[in-house]
Design brief:
11 helices, seven-stranded mixed beta sheet, 37% helix, binds pyridoxal-5'-phosphate, globular, alpha/beta
Length: 353
């Protein structure tokens, strides 16, 4: 605490990201990164962008990247916004659409950055409990005053809503923005992007951190009606004109061009998720149905905190949340085959003792 802090700074309870351990040779399954490297085309494009032109500012509008994303999804360039990681895009959406408003509906068990943005932007959060299956019930998301936000698939549960269920939420809230955070959509879900032309209140946010293996580059995007995107641009250009550097823009374009690699690695993650789920079930874990690159699981006997501590001691890091209803769950990111085999071997050692 310092006398120089503003009243707002004093009240903030910042988001705490999952551990990025400094030790090598750990099996790191705690922050839902992609276990596979970026596409070789992406690495080549980024290496080529490291040249004398770095003395010049990047394109502030990232036109080439926006056009590439628009072509990929069949949208107009004016329906695409990009930013420095989807966390930044989410923050700008809060500023553009929710700031100072009452009653933003969000699931009680969800991405823990949303309540932090509520504090930062003076938004009253209204947390809606997940149902008994840890799923979002669309009927609970009617008549919001500030708006609605949820991840699809949800994090940390991995459970997904169908497009019909999302339309139900959009139709129940025609006068406010419904933000669908699709950080994990490429691992088996159907994107709400195809609803954009029918719903001017829909904003879809995505990231290149997960399915495109670029967490280290910080690239996020939003897609929606041109008026929503214009609102985001106004906020962005009042904060930082150049959120994406030259290297990031080059890499992101290549990531959308190399569709074969993208499809191959997503399929591999899905295959590994199925294997991981089966192995955990064999070891008497209950595993929620996941369409993401992680699973959410609890053991029928051992407390989650104890399992997480044992895994850490044996070089495997997973995520444990100290939150009501989910404190006995572990969120385990899908890894490579070798990483998952090591995880399962350590769990076997612990649970068969
Ligand atoms: C649901 C959800 N949304 C957004 C993000 C942020 O992703 P990034 O800022 O890396 O694009 C995450 C990161 O884990 C997430 O889980």
């Amino acid at each position: 605490m310092s006398k120089f802090w503003s009243e707002r700074t004093k009240c903030l309870q910042p988001y705490v990201p999952g551990e990025q351990p400094k030790l090598t040779n750990l099996v790191k399954l705690n922050t839902n990164e992609n276990p596979f490297p970026p596409s070789p085309m992406v690495l080549t494009a980024m290496r080529q962008a490291v040249n004398d032109e770095l003395c010049l500012y990047p394109d502030p509008n990232a036109d080439k990247l926006k056009q590439t994303i628009a072509d990929y999804y069949g949208l107009h360039k004016q329906q695409v916004f990009v930013g420095n990681g989807s966390d930044e895009v989410l923050a700008q959406a809060f500023a553009a659409f929710f700031q100072g408003k009452q009653q933003l509906l969000l699931p009680d068990i969800s991405y823990s950055f949303y309540p932090v943005y509520c504090q930062l932007y003076d938004v009253e959060a209204c947390c809606v409990p997940l149902n008994e299956n840890f799923a979002i019930d669309p009927a609970d998301y009617c008549h919001a005053r500030a708006g609605v936000i949820f991840p699809n698939p949800n994090a940390p549960t991995g459970c997904i809503l169908s497009l019909m269920q999302i339309e139900q939420i959009l139709q129940a809230n025609p006068d406010c923005v419904v933000l669908v955070d699709e950080a994990y959509i490429d691992f088996g879900g159907e994107s709400s992007v195809k609803l954009i032309d029918d719903y001017p209140n829909l904003l879809v946010v995505q990231t290149l951190s997960k399915s495109r293996s670029l967490a280290g580059m910080r690239i996020g995007l939003a897609m929606g009606h041109v008026d929503l995107i214009e609102g985001l641009e106004r906020v962005k250009n009042s904060f930082n004109s150049y959120p994406l550097d030259r290297v990031a823009q080059a890499g992101a374009v290549a990531a959308f061009m190399d569709d074969d690699y993208f499809r191959f690695t997503c399929a591999k993650v899905i295959e590994n998720r199925i294997w991981l789920t089966e192995q955990l079930q064999r070891l008497k874990f209950e595993v929620l149905p996941s369409e993401a690159n992680f699973v959410f699981a609890r053991h029928d006997r051992k407390p989650a905190a104890q399992i997480a501590a044992f895994l850490r001691l044996h070089g495997v890091v997973v995520r444990h949340f100290l939150q009501d209803r989910i404190s006995n769950f572990l969120r385990i990111s899908v890894g490579t085959e070798e990483q998952q085999q090591r995880l399962i071997a350590v769990l076997e050692e612990m649970l068969t003792q």
